[in-house]
Protein backbone atom coordinates (compact mmCIF):
# COMPACT_ATOMS: atom_id res chain seq x y z
CA UNK A 1 0.00 0.00 0.00
CA UNK A 2 2.85 2.37 0.85
CA UNK A 3 4.54 1.62 -2.48
CA UNK A 4 1.30 2.23 -4.36
CA UNK A 5 0.77 5.57 -2.60
CA UNK A 6 4.34 6.61 -3.32
CA UNK A 7 4.07 5.66 -6.99
CA UNK A 8 0.72 7.42 -7.36
CA UNK A 9 1.97 10.68 -5.86
CA UNK A 10 5.12 10.63 -8.00
CA UNK A 11 3.12 9.88 -11.14
CA UNK A 12 0.56 12.58 -10.35
CA UNK A 13 3.18 15.26 -9.94
CA UNK A 14 5.31 14.10 -12.87
CA UNK A 15 2.38 13.89 -15.28
CA UNK A 16 1.04 17.24 -14.12
CA UNK A 17 4.42 18.91 -14.60
CA UNK A 18 4.88 17.40 -18.04
CA UNK A 19 1.36 17.44 -19.37
CA UNK A 20 -0.38 20.30 -17.60
CA UNK A 21 -3.49 20.13 -15.47
CA UNK A 22 -5.78 18.20 -17.81
CA UNK A 23 -7.46 15.43 -15.89
CA UNK A 24 -6.09 16.42 -12.49
CA UNK A 25 -8.28 19.41 -11.70
CA UNK A 26 -11.50 17.41 -11.72
CA UNK A 27 -13.03 15.21 -9.05
CA UNK A 28 -11.13 16.22 -5.94
CA UNK A 29 -10.47 19.91 -6.61
CA UNK A 30 -11.29 21.87 -3.45
CA UNK A 31 -12.71 25.38 -3.15
CA UNK A 32 -10.68 27.25 -0.54
CA UNK A 33 -12.74 28.65 2.32
CA UNK A 34 -11.56 32.22 2.85
CA UNK A 35 -12.85 35.51 4.22
CA UNK A 36 -14.50 36.33 7.54
CA UNK A 37 -16.52 33.70 9.43
CA UNK A 38 -20.22 32.94 8.91
CA UNK A 39 -22.49 35.41 10.66
CA UNK A 40 -20.26 38.40 9.96
CA UNK A 41 -23.06 40.43 8.36
CA UNK A 42 -25.25 40.15 11.49
CA UNK A 43 -22.24 40.95 13.68
CA UNK A 44 -21.51 44.13 11.72
CA UNK A 45 -25.13 45.22 12.05
CA UNK A 46 -25.25 44.64 15.83
CA UNK A 47 -25.36 47.87 17.87
CA UNK A 48 -26.06 46.28 21.27
CA UNK A 49 -22.61 47.19 22.63
CA UNK A 50 -23.28 50.88 22.04
CA UNK A 51 -20.46 51.17 19.50
CA UNK A 52 -19.42 49.41 16.30
CA UNK A 53 -18.16 45.88 16.75
CA UNK A 54 -14.68 45.18 15.32
CA UNK A 55 -14.96 44.09 11.70
CA UNK A 56 -13.66 40.50 11.39
CA UNK A 57 -12.37 41.31 7.91
CA UNK A 58 -10.30 44.37 8.79
CA UNK A 59 -9.74 44.69 12.57
CA UNK A 60 -6.33 43.63 13.84
CA UNK A 61 -6.13 41.11 16.70
CA UNK A 62 -4.85 43.89 18.96
CA UNK A 63 -7.90 46.02 18.10
CA UNK A 64 -10.15 43.05 18.85
CA UNK A 65 -8.42 42.49 22.20
CA UNK A 66 -8.81 46.17 23.12
CA UNK A 67 -12.52 46.06 22.23
CA UNK A 68 -13.24 43.08 24.48
CA UNK A 69 -11.16 44.59 27.28
CA UNK A 70 -13.61 47.51 27.32
CA UNK A 71 -16.68 45.30 27.85
CA UNK A 72 -18.06 43.94 31.09
CA UNK A 73 -18.71 40.22 31.52
CA UNK A 74 -22.40 40.50 30.71
CA UNK A 75 -21.75 42.29 27.41
CA UNK A 76 -19.11 39.73 26.44
CA UNK A 77 -21.41 36.82 27.09
CA UNK A 78 -24.25 38.46 25.18
CA UNK A 79 -21.97 38.59 22.14
CA UNK A 80 -20.99 34.95 22.61
CA UNK A 81 -24.63 33.86 22.67
CA UNK A 82 -25.67 36.09 19.78
CA UNK A 83 -22.66 35.53 17.49
CA UNK A 84 -20.85 32.32 18.45
CA UNK A 85 -19.33 31.68 15.03
CA UNK A 86 -17.81 35.16 14.91
CA UNK A 87 -16.53 35.30 18.50
CA UNK A 88 -15.21 31.76 18.24
CA UNK A 89 -13.08 32.62 15.21
CA UNK A 90 -12.05 36.14 16.17
CA UNK A 91 -8.29 36.38 16.73
CA UNK A 92 -7.68 38.62 19.73
CA UNK A 93 -10.88 37.70 21.57
CA UNK A 94 -10.34 36.28 25.10
CA UNK A 95 -9.56 32.56 24.96
CA UNK A 96 -12.29 31.39 27.41
CA UNK A 97 -14.90 33.24 25.35
CA UNK A 98 -13.69 31.57 22.16
CA UNK A 99 -13.86 28.14 23.75
CA UNK A 100 -17.40 28.82 24.96
CA UNK A 101 -18.51 30.30 21.64
CA UNK A 102 -17.20 27.35 19.66
CA UNK A 103 -18.91 24.87 21.95
CA UNK A 104 -22.17 26.66 21.15
CA UNK A 105 -21.37 26.83 17.43
CA UNK A 106 -20.47 23.14 17.18
CA UNK A 107 -23.63 22.10 19.02
CA UNK A 108 -25.75 24.36 16.82
CA UNK A 109 -24.70 22.51 13.66
CA UNK A 110 -26.53 19.42 14.89
CA UNK A 111 -24.07 17.32 12.88
CA UNK A 112 -22.90 14.06 14.41
CA UNK A 113 -19.49 14.30 12.72
CA UNK A 114 -18.68 17.34 14.89
CA UNK A 115 -20.37 16.25 18.12
CA UNK A 116 -17.20 15.21 19.98
CA UNK A 117 -15.77 18.72 19.57
CA UNK A 118 -18.47 20.09 21.89
CA UNK A 119 -17.40 17.98 24.89
CA UNK A 120 -16.81 20.07 28.05
CA UNK A 121 -13.10 19.24 28.20
CA UNK A 122 -12.35 20.31 24.61
CA UNK A 123 -10.72 23.71 24.04
CA UNK A 124 -11.80 24.58 20.51
CA UNK A 125 -10.06 27.78 19.50
CA UNK A 126 -11.67 28.07 16.06
CA UNK A 127 -14.47 26.31 14.24
CA UNK A 128 -15.88 26.98 10.77
CA UNK A 129 -18.46 24.51 9.38
CA UNK A 130 -18.23 25.77 5.80
CA UNK A 131 -16.99 23.34 3.19
CA UNK A 132 -15.39 20.30 4.83
CA UNK A 133 -14.99 22.28 8.05
CA UNK A 134 -12.01 23.89 9.75
CA UNK A 135 -10.97 23.64 13.38
CA UNK A 136 -8.20 24.57 15.80
CA UNK A 137 -7.92 22.87 19.18
CA UNK A 138 -5.72 23.74 22.15
CA UNK A 139 -4.02 21.09 24.28
CA UNK A 140 -2.71 22.63 27.50
CA UNK A 141 -3.12 26.03 29.12
CA UNK A 142 -2.67 28.55 26.31
CA UNK A 143 -3.41 31.46 28.65
CA UNK A 144 -0.44 30.76 30.90
CA UNK A 145 1.93 28.69 28.74
CA UNK A 146 5.60 29.66 28.54
CA UNK A 147 5.89 27.90 25.18
CA UNK A 148 3.39 27.39 22.35
CA UNK A 149 3.60 24.98 19.43
CA UNK A 150 1.27 24.82 16.44
CA UNK A 151 0.73 21.68 14.34
CA UNK A 152 -0.01 22.57 10.70
CA UNK A 153 -1.17 19.37 8.96
CA UNK A 154 -1.36 18.41 5.29
CA UNK A 155 -3.82 16.74 2.94
CA UNK A 156 -7.07 15.02 3.87
CA UNK A 157 -7.55 16.86 7.16
CA UNK A 158 -10.65 18.81 8.15
CA UNK A 159 -12.94 19.41 11.11
CA UNK A 160 -14.56 15.98 10.82
CA UNK A 161 -11.29 14.01 10.55
CA UNK A 162 -9.31 16.21 12.98
CA UNK A 163 -9.73 13.72 15.81
CA UNK A 164 -10.93 10.70 13.87
CA UNK A 165 -10.03 7.24 15.11
CA UNK A 166 -6.70 6.34 13.53
CA UNK A 167 -3.21 5.14 14.40
CA UNK A 168 -2.00 6.82 17.64
CA UNK A 169 0.10 10.00 17.35
CA UNK A 170 -1.05 10.59 13.77
CA UNK A 171 -3.52 13.15 12.51
CA UNK A 172 -3.57 16.73 13.82
CA UNK A 173 -5.04 16.00 17.26
CA UNK A 174 -2.92 12.87 17.72
CA UNK A 175 0.27 14.73 16.84
CA UNK A 176 -0.64 17.57 19.20
CA UNK A 177 -1.40 15.20 22.08
CA UNK A 178 1.87 13.33 21.53
CA UNK A 179 3.92 16.53 21.54
CA UNK A 180 2.09 17.86 24.58
CA UNK A 181 2.80 14.64 26.49
CA UNK A 182 6.46 14.65 25.38
CA UNK A 183 6.89 18.11 26.87
CA UNK A 184 5.60 16.98 30.24
CA UNK A 185 1.95 17.95 30.02
CA UNK A 186 -1.30 16.06 30.38
CA UNK A 187 -2.96 15.02 27.11
CA UNK A 188 -6.36 16.24 28.27
CA UNK A 189 -7.60 19.65 29.35
CA UNK A 190 -5.29 22.45 30.46
CA UNK A 191 -3.45 20.87 33.36
CA UNK A 192 0.29 20.35 33.77
CA UNK A 193 3.31 21.39 31.75
CA UNK A 194 4.50 24.74 30.48
CA UNK A 195 3.90 24.05 26.78
CA UNK A 196 0.55 24.40 25.02
CA UNK A 197 0.05 22.78 21.62
CA UNK A 198 -2.50 23.87 19.02
CA UNK A 199 -3.71 21.50 16.31
CA UNK A 200 -4.50 24.00 13.55
CA UNK A 201 -6.62 23.05 10.54
CA UNK A 202 -7.33 26.64 9.65
CA UNK A 203 -7.30 26.15 5.90
CA UNK A 204 -8.85 23.98 3.21
CA UNK A 205 -6.49 21.05 2.71
CA UNK A 206 -6.14 19.03 -0.51
CA UNK A 207 -7.96 15.72 -0.84
CA UNK A 208 -6.00 12.86 -2.32
CA UNK A 209 -3.13 13.33 -4.77
CA UNK A 210 -4.65 15.41 -7.56
CA UNK A 211 -3.53 18.80 -8.77
CA UNK A 212 -4.53 20.43 -5.47
CA UNK A 213 -1.70 18.57 -3.73
CA UNK A 214 0.78 19.47 -6.46
CA UNK A 215 0.14 23.20 -6.80
CA UNK A 216 0.17 26.07 -4.33
CA UNK A 217 -3.37 27.45 -4.63
CA UNK A 218 -4.72 26.03 -1.38
CA UNK A 219 -1.40 26.64 0.37
CA UNK A 220 -1.49 30.33 -0.53
CA UNK A 221 -5.00 30.65 0.91
CA UNK A 222 -3.89 28.79 4.01
CA UNK A 223 -0.74 30.89 4.39
CA UNK A 224 -2.78 34.08 4.62
CA UNK A 225 -4.75 32.59 7.51
CA UNK A 226 -1.71 31.11 9.22
CA UNK A 227 0.11 34.46 9.07
CA UNK A 228 -2.69 36.06 11.09
CA UNK A 229 -2.80 33.30 13.70
CA UNK A 230 0.41 34.23 15.62
CA UNK A 231 -0.80 37.84 15.72
CA UNK A 232 -3.86 36.55 17.54
CA UNK A 233 -1.59 34.76 20.01
CA UNK A 234 0.34 38.00 20.58
CA UNK A 235 -2.89 39.87 21.27
CA UNK A 236 -3.82 37.57 24.17
CA UNK A 237 -0.30 37.53 25.61
CA UNK A 238 0.76 34.09 24.39
CA UNK A 239 4.41 33.44 23.44
CA UNK A 240 5.68 33.39 19.87
CA UNK A 241 5.01 29.89 18.52
CA UNK A 242 6.98 27.02 17.07
CA UNK A 243 5.37 25.78 13.84
CA UNK A 244 5.45 22.04 13.16
CA UNK A 245 4.49 21.67 9.51
CA UNK A 246 3.66 18.22 8.15
CA UNK A 247 3.55 17.28 4.46
CA UNK A 248 1.46 19.81 2.46
CA UNK A 249 1.29 21.86 5.68
CA UNK A 250 4.99 22.65 5.16
CA UNK A 251 4.06 24.33 1.88
CA UNK A 252 1.64 26.52 3.83
CA UNK A 253 4.32 27.30 6.41
CA UNK A 254 6.87 28.10 3.72
CA UNK A 255 4.58 30.67 2.14
CA UNK A 256 3.60 32.16 5.52
CA UNK A 257 7.11 32.15 7.03
CA UNK A 258 8.08 35.74 6.32
CA UNK A 259 4.78 37.01 7.75
CA UNK A 260 4.91 35.24 11.13
CA UNK A 261 6.90 35.78 14.31
CA UNK A 262 7.49 32.05 14.84
CA UNK A 263 10.67 31.24 16.73
CA UNK A 264 11.16 27.96 14.85
CA UNK A 265 9.64 26.34 11.76
CA UNK A 266 9.91 22.55 11.51
CA UNK A 267 9.14 20.88 8.15
CA UNK A 268 8.51 17.14 8.41
CA UNK A 269 7.67 14.80 5.57
CA UNK A 270 7.81 17.85 3.31
CA UNK A 271 7.39 17.92 -0.49
CA UNK A 272 9.05 21.38 -0.48
CA UNK A 273 8.39 24.80 0.98
CA UNK A 274 8.19 26.87 -2.22
CA UNK A 275 11.68 28.21 -1.59
CA UNK A 276 15.08 27.15 -2.86
CA UNK A 277 16.82 27.60 0.49
CA UNK A 278 15.99 28.26 4.12
CA UNK A 279 17.33 31.79 3.69
CA UNK A 280 14.85 32.35 0.85
CA UNK A 281 11.98 31.93 3.31
CA UNK A 282 12.97 35.38 4.64
CA UNK A 283 12.17 34.51 8.22
CA UNK A 284 13.93 35.16 11.50
CA UNK A 285 12.83 31.72 12.69
CA UNK A 286 15.21 28.82 12.87
CA UNK A 287 14.28 26.34 10.13
CA UNK A 288 14.39 22.59 10.78
CA UNK A 289 13.62 19.60 8.56
CA UNK A 290 12.97 15.90 9.14
CA UNK A 291 12.33 12.96 6.83
CA UNK A 292 12.17 9.30 7.81
CA UNK A 293 13.83 6.58 5.73
CA UNK A 294 10.54 4.95 4.72
CA UNK A 295 8.57 8.14 4.02
CA UNK A 296 7.21 7.97 0.47
CA UNK A 297 7.48 11.75 0.19
CA UNK A 298 11.13 11.16 -0.74
CA UNK A 299 9.96 9.94 -4.16
CA UNK A 300 7.97 13.07 -4.96
CA UNK A 301 10.02 15.09 -7.49
CA UNK A 302 11.45 18.24 -5.91
CA UNK A 303 10.59 20.45 -8.85
CA UNK A 304 8.57 23.58 -9.44
CA UNK A 305 7.34 24.30 -12.95
CA UNK A 306 4.55 26.64 -14.01
CA UNK A 307 3.32 26.77 -10.44
CA UNK A 308 3.25 22.98 -10.04
CA UNK A 309 5.53 21.25 -7.54
CA UNK A 310 6.92 22.71 -4.33
CA UNK A 311 10.63 23.09 -5.02
CA UNK A 312 13.74 22.06 -3.12
CA UNK A 313 13.89 19.26 -0.57
CA UNK A 314 14.12 20.91 2.88
CA UNK A 315 16.25 17.99 4.15
CA UNK A 316 18.93 18.48 1.48
CA UNK A 317 22.24 20.00 2.52
CA UNK A 318 21.83 22.72 -0.09
CA UNK A 319 18.56 23.91 1.45
CA UNK A 320 20.35 24.80 4.69
CA UNK A 321 17.79 23.76 7.31
CA UNK A 322 18.87 22.19 10.60
CA UNK A 323 18.32 18.44 10.46
CA UNK A 324 16.06 16.67 12.94
CA UNK A 325 17.04 13.03 13.59
CA UNK A 326 14.39 10.73 12.13
CA UNK A 327 16.14 7.41 11.44
CA UNK A 328 13.52 5.44 13.37
CA UNK A 329 10.43 7.12 11.91
CA UNK A 330 8.04 4.73 10.17
CA UNK A 331 6.20 5.89 7.06
CA UNK A 332 4.79 9.34 6.32
CA UNK A 333 2.88 9.92 9.55
CA UNK A 334 5.15 8.40 12.21
CA UNK A 335 7.11 11.50 13.23
CA UNK A 336 5.28 11.97 16.55
CA UNK A 337 5.27 8.31 17.58
CA UNK A 338 6.32 7.94 21.25
CA UNK A 339 9.92 6.85 21.66
CA UNK A 340 11.13 8.14 18.31
CA UNK A 341 14.19 10.35 17.92
CA UNK A 342 12.06 12.86 16.05
CA UNK A 343 9.51 13.31 18.85
CA UNK A 344 12.29 13.76 21.42
CA UNK A 345 13.88 16.42 19.20
CA UNK A 346 10.50 18.09 18.60
CA UNK A 347 9.92 18.34 22.36
CA UNK A 348 13.31 19.99 22.82
CA UNK A 349 12.52 22.51 20.06
CA UNK A 350 9.03 23.14 21.48
CA UNK A 351 10.50 23.93 24.90
CA UNK A 352 13.02 26.38 23.44
CA UNK A 353 15.97 24.22 24.54
CA UNK A 354 17.30 23.15 21.12
CA UNK A 355 20.68 24.42 19.95
Notes on the structure:
The chain is of the alpha/beta class and 355 residues long. The chain is 33% helix and 12% strand. The chain contains eleven helices and eight strands. The longest helix is centred in the middle third of the chain and has 19 residues. The protein is globular.
Supply the key terms:
355 residues; alpha/beta; eight-stranded mixed sheet; 11 helices; 12% strand; globular; disordered N terminus
In short:
The protein has 355 residues and is of the alpha/beta class. The protein has helices at 2-19, 40-45, 61-69, 73-82, 84-87, 95-109, 171-182, 211-214, 217-235, 248-256, 341-350; strands at residues 124-128, 134-139, 147-152, 195-201, 241-246, 264-268, 286-290, 322-323.
Number of H/I helices:
11
N- to C-terminal distance? 38 Å
Low-pLDDT sequence parts: 1-27
Question: How are the strands of the largest sheet arranged?
Answer: 1-2-4-3-5-6-7-8
- What overall form do the CA principal axes indicate? globular
- What characterizes the major β-sheet? 8 strands, mixed
Mean pLDDT: 90
Order of helices and strands: HHHHHHEEEHEHHEHEEEH
User: What structural class do helix, strand and pairing data support?
Assistant: alpha/beta
Rg from Cα:
20 Å
Helical coverage, percent range:
25-40%
Beta-strand segment tally: 8
What fraction of residues sit in β-strands? 5-15%
Amino acid sequence: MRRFGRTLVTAALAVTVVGGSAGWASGDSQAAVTGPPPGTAAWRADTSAGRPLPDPATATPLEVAAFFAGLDDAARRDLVRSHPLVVGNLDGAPLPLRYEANRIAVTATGEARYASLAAPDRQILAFDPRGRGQVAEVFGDLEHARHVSVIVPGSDNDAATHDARRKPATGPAGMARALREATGGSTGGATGGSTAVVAWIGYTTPVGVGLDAADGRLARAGAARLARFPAGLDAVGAPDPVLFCHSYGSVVCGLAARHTDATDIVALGSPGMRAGTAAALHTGARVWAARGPSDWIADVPNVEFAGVGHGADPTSAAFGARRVPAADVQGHTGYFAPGTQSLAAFATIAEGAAR
